[in-house]
């Protein structure tokens, strides 16, 4: 377990670094431009690259040592952060104030590429859980991964809020560059005995390429696995609303320092959730856990912005953070069980690509839609006349209405999924894998010919 714990610690540093930059640039863009359109575009840029790169990054993970790929991600991130620092230092006067200015969006692109390089860790880490952790302990290990993410989220939100308030992006990027170098040096000292999965005697050699067809055949061989991925995709379609609007809505209620500090306090829910999962696991059917979590979180989404209260918003965010690691651990545990190890990087990458593919559409659409349609609707339009007397009026209430509608749709879709044949099929496939005596996490599915 020692190498696994060292990897978790290293990932904590890398995640804190990369997501401090991500939070900070979102806060900073809104404060510089006061444009919901701009924050929606930032989220869209991040998510569209995440969707496009997932499959390729998964292939890199499968065809190389996991430690090497994680160290490479640190090198690439450091290079982009250095380039972004140069853009800050040589900024033409007022260039960052224009939400449509090319210099601003060149800077956003460079920063986002530095953050995106860290995504390879999100693909490599669950494959290392398969390699290093016995099968019957993987759900608990995935809980530890969630706990580390929660600690990172706590630190990230606090650091980014205060850094943006007192140092701007210069301080954020200077810290990010230094911490990325430290993560690289530490990971170089960690010894990981990864081994290599032995290929089947009747299977051809694994192609050293993206190989979309072979990965799709692996996923299709497990009844209901495509449905799980597309369910997560739809959740992310709605979740793109949070990436586009949550910071802008929160900053309409409190200052950036308070918003960052509040998220730091609330993210203790991530830590508590990870500790609970690490002790108790996810039960006999992780898929049931995943759907129950979704039903609760979307129900909360229906009401947590129904009035302009920071306490109501904080309570809703706490529930989301408490239950979020359950959903992620459930999906990872299922994939680790039913997918062969030699394909897991590509399957996790494929899942990342497909699941994130909907969020860019939402983020790109929801910013302009909220700015130019819903906000006027709830400021002096028909919505303000119809429900403004109890729901409230103004720009913030326009954003709040979007959250409420998203929650209603999420509840309906989760109920449909709970009653679907795909849920029953994949639950049965997972249960069949539990009865398999093989030690390989992908024993339930043969490698494709």
What would the keywords be for this entry?
mainly alpha, 449 residues, 79% helix, disordered C terminus, globular
General description of the model:
The protein is mainly α. The protein is built from 17 helices and no strands. It is globular and about 60 Å long. The two termini are 34 Å apart. The C terminus is likely disordered.
Secondary structure layout plus pairing:
Layout: H1 2-33, H2 36-63, H3 66-89, H4 102-116, H5 119-132, H6 138-166, H7 168-188, H8 212-220, H9 225-251, H10 256-266, H11 268-280, H12 286-301, H13 310-338, H14 341-379, H15 382-391, H16 395-418, H17 421-434
Helix pairs in contact: 1-2, 1-4, 1-5, 1-6, 1-7, 2-4, 2-5, 2-9, 2-14, 3-4, 3-5, 3-7, 5-14, 6-7, 6-10, 6-11, 6-13, 8-14, 9-14, 9-16, 11-13, 12-13, 12-16, 14-15, 14-16
Radius of gyration: 22 Å
DSSP summary, beta strand count: 0
State the separation between the terminal residues, measured CA to CA.
34 Å
* Overall spatial form: globular
Percent range for β-strand residues: under 5%
The H-and-E topology, N to C, reads as HHHHHHHHHHHHHHHHH
| Mean of all residue-level pLDDT scores | 81
Largest sheet: none
Q: Spans with pLDDT under 50 lasting ≥5 residues?
A: 437-449
Number of helices: 17
Structural class: mainly alpha
Helix content: over 70%
């Amino acid at each position: 377990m020692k190498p696994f714990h060292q990897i978790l610690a290293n990932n904590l540093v890398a995640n804190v670094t990369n997501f401090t930059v991500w939070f900070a640039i979102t806060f900073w863009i809104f404060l510089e431009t006061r444009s919901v359109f701009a924050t929606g575009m930032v989220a869209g840029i991040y998510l569209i690259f995440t969707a496009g790169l997932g499959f390729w990054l998964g292939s890199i993970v499968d065809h190389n040592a996991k430690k090497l790929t994680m160290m490479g991600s640190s090198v690439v991130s450091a290079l982009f952060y250095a380039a972004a620092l140069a853009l800050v230092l040589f900024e033409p006067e007022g260039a960052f104030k224009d939400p449509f200015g090319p210099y601003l969006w060149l800077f956003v692109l460079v920063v986002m590429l530095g953050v995106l390089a860290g995504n390879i860790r999100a693909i490599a880490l669950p494959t290392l859980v398969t390699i290093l952790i016995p099968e019957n302990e993987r759900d608990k290990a995935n809980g530890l991964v969630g706990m580390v993410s929660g600690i990172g989220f706590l630190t990230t939100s606090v650091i980014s809020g205060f850094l943006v308030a007192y140092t701007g992006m210069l301080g954020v990027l200077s810290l990010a560059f230094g911490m990325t170098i430290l993560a690289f040096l530490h990971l170089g000292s960690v010894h990981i005995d990864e081994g290599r999965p032995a290929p089947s005697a009747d299977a051809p050699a694994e192609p050293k390429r993206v190989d979309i067809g072979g990965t799709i055949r692996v996923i299709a061989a497990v009844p209901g696995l495509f449905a799980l991925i597309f369910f997560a995709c739809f959740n992310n379609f709605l979740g793109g609303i949070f990436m586009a609007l949550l910071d802008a809505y929160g900053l309409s209620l409190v200052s950036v320092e308070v918003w960052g500090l509040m998220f730091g306090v609330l993210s203790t829910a991530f830590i508590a959730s990870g500790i609970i999962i690490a002790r108790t696991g996810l039960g006999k059917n992780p898929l049931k856990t995943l759907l129950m979590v979704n039903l609760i979180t979307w129900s909360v989404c229906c009401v947590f912005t129904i009035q302009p209260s920071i306490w109501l918003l904080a309570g809703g965010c706490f529930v989301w953070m408490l239950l979020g690691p359950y959903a992620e651990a459930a999906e990872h545990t299922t994939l680790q069980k039913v997918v062969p190890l030699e394909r897991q990087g590509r399957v996790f990458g494929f899942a990342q690509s497909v699941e994130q593919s909907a969020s860019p559409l939402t983020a790109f659409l929801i910013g302009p839609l909220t700015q130019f349609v819903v906000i006027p609707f709830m400021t002096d339009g028909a919505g303000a006349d119809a429900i403004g007397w109890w729901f409230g009026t103004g720009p913030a209430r326009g954003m709040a209405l979007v959250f409420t509608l998203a929650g209603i749709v999420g509840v309906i879709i989760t109920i449909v999924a709970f009653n679907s044949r795909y849920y029953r099929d994949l639950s049965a496939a997972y249960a069949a894998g539990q009865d398999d005596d093989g030690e390989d996490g992908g024993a339930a599915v043969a490698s494709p010919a």
